[in-house]
Write a structure and sequence with these properties.
It is an enzyme of class 3 (hydrolase). Its EC number is 3.-.-.-. One of its GO terms (molecular function) is hydrolase activity. This is Serine hydrolase domain-containing protein. InterPro entries: Beta-lactam-related, Beta-lactam/transpept-like, Diverse_Enzym_Activities. The protein is α+β, with helices and mostly antiparallel strands. The protein has one domain: Beta-lactamase (3-Layer(aba) Sandwich), CATH 3.40.710.10. Helix content is 33%, strand content 18%. It contains 12 helices and 17 strands. It has a 5-stranded antiparallel β-sheet, sandwiched between helices. Strands 1-9-10-6 form a 4-stranded antiparallel β-sheet, with helices on one face. Strands 2-3 form a two-stranded antiparallel sheet. Helix 1 crosses helix 2 and helix 4 runs parallel beside helix 8. It is globular and about 60 Å long.
Amino acid sequence: MSLRTVFAFALSLVLLQSCKLGRFVYYNYANITDYRIFPSRQILAPERAFIFPTATRQKIPAKINLGHQEHDLERFLKDHHTVAFLVIQHDSIQYENYWDGYSEESIVASFSMAKSITSILIGIALDEGLIKSVDEPITNYIPELRPNGFENVRIRHLLQMTSGLDFNEGYANPFGHVATFYYGTNLRKAISKLQLKDAPGESFRYTSGQTQLLGLVLERALKNRTISAYLQEKVWQPLGMEFNASWSLDRTENGLEKTFCCINARARDFAKLGRLYLKNGNWNGKQIVSEKWVTESTKQDSSDGSAWFYQYQWWLPTKNGDFLADGLLGQYIYVHPEKHLIIVRLGKKTGEVNWEQLFPQIAALY
């Protein structure tokens, strides 16, 4: 038996013993088409959709300056792996374009933009009294973490990424936490093994595990409803989404939504989530989530170890009131309230572009 054959046999045994590792090796790295490889729950759109009107004269800045170089913006977007780019101002589509075979009907995995959507649902659950306070210990909902020392971790700590969670965020490490959470098939079991690295409330550290803990808090608060059903009832249908969506799960039977990632939807519907927060949680006269929650989620705050640029699962790219949801490989919902502007960018890669800096530059030209 050759050395290569022995190695292949040994590897196959390892892969058979580890579904997570097998998925990691087979799929290699996350992709915006990963909604095809995981079980999921469907999120139904309503019968009547809200449609953004298209501006009579669409406009997009012809040129942008990056790194002391002028670029044609449309060419730049195409060359840097963008598959969808949408600009909405004053509720009208100013620009909409798709590349590489994608269209307005193409599904794209949200990756960590789902963190911001999870935050919306936490805010609604608080409004409805299903969760009492952001200052509640998470062990009120996840008692299995008490033996691991989580008694002083509050919901607020998870929202602000200051819980002190010990969590390896590296997607390239097949044995790291994030690979377990992304490719694994038992999130509840993985959560029960989590430990703390630091005391809560001392420093900011961005990790997906904290949002998945929020997801389990939300699931426990909802009791007999799934997180996907809650999103459908409270957000997807009231906002008049054009298309059905889905939320990827860890497993088919009794699955838990991957709340740190993995909402699968289209560009126009992602834009409506931006509009909801642009309108302070109000959707055409109906308060979907409280204005107070939107304000808390998008204000600058560096108290109790929090970072000024990150609040309640939303990123703040500047100190000028703008904010964004940010996902792996360059998925973004950017909101500039002063300009009444929303930008959605979806892509196969970030393309080594600092999109967080580019969006405010584009907004300034409107």
